[in-house]
Amino acid sequence: xxxxxxxxxxxxxxxxxxxxxxxxxxxxxxxxxxxxxxxxxxxxxxxxxxxxxxxxxxxxxxxxxxxxxxxxxxxxxxxxxxxxxxxxxxxxxxxxxxxxxxxxxxxxxxxxxxxxxxxxxxxxxxxxxxxxxxxxxxxxxxxxxxxxxxxxxxxxxxxxxxxxxxxxxxxxxxxxxxxxxxxxxxxxxxxxxxxxxxxxxxxxxxxxxxxxxxxxxxxxxxxxxxxxxxxxxxxxxxxxxxxxxxxxxxxx
Length: 252
Ligand SMILES: Nc1ncnc2c1ncn2[C@@H]1O[C@H](COP(=O)(O)OP(=O)(O)OP(=O)(O)O)[C@@H](O)[C@H]1O
Prior knowledge:
With 252 residues, this protein is α/β, with parallel strands linked by helices. Helices cover 33% and strands 25% of the residues.
């Protein structure tokens, strides 16, 4: 149930602009007949024959039972893994024939990925974890990068933790730091694997608000894999997987 005035916030999450769902008309990531099969004596199909179009400014939740292929699909959509059959089109470009360097450049500029296990670099501070991808992308002076990183951290209520290393943070702070890093290069697509998993209500609400604000204010696309019914209910579209196949794809 979504409050009539989302700003009133009836639950842990507030949705800023639920009715602005633009549908898939401005297609950004298109999966066509995508399967991912691990070879072996008994091949394992992670996802099977997926057709999916995700457009600009959508907030999509990928749901399904454990082992249904949600993370595998997210990795494929985020160009972190390659389909065994079928193709992924990204911004109108077929990625099948791209080399790894081109894919890496696309990821660096356009995709922010929040992993299920944060994968922050343990030997660097939180601030440096944001500055590293920024410097790899380049294009602006270090002072500007620092200001931007500081603003992202402040928006996620992490301004006091910038100089800490990941092992000095709480679980919720680490999860938020991982989201901050994913946002460092202001990606067009934010793909997050269980971004609110194991978070308390307050931390989950901070994460959700940040994701929804990016979508709303900057027309970014958000795709989350989640078991969190609260988060899934507030997405504009829910794609449900069972045994690696899409069994439901519904606008909320
Ligand atoms: N490298 C791998 N080798 C063998 N099996 C794998 C591998 N990666 C994933 N799988 C299997 O593929 C299936 C899909 O995995 P995936 O992680 O995509 O599911 P999921 O829906 O995200 O699960 P969860 O909700 O538990 O995170 C699972 O049965 C998993 O055990």
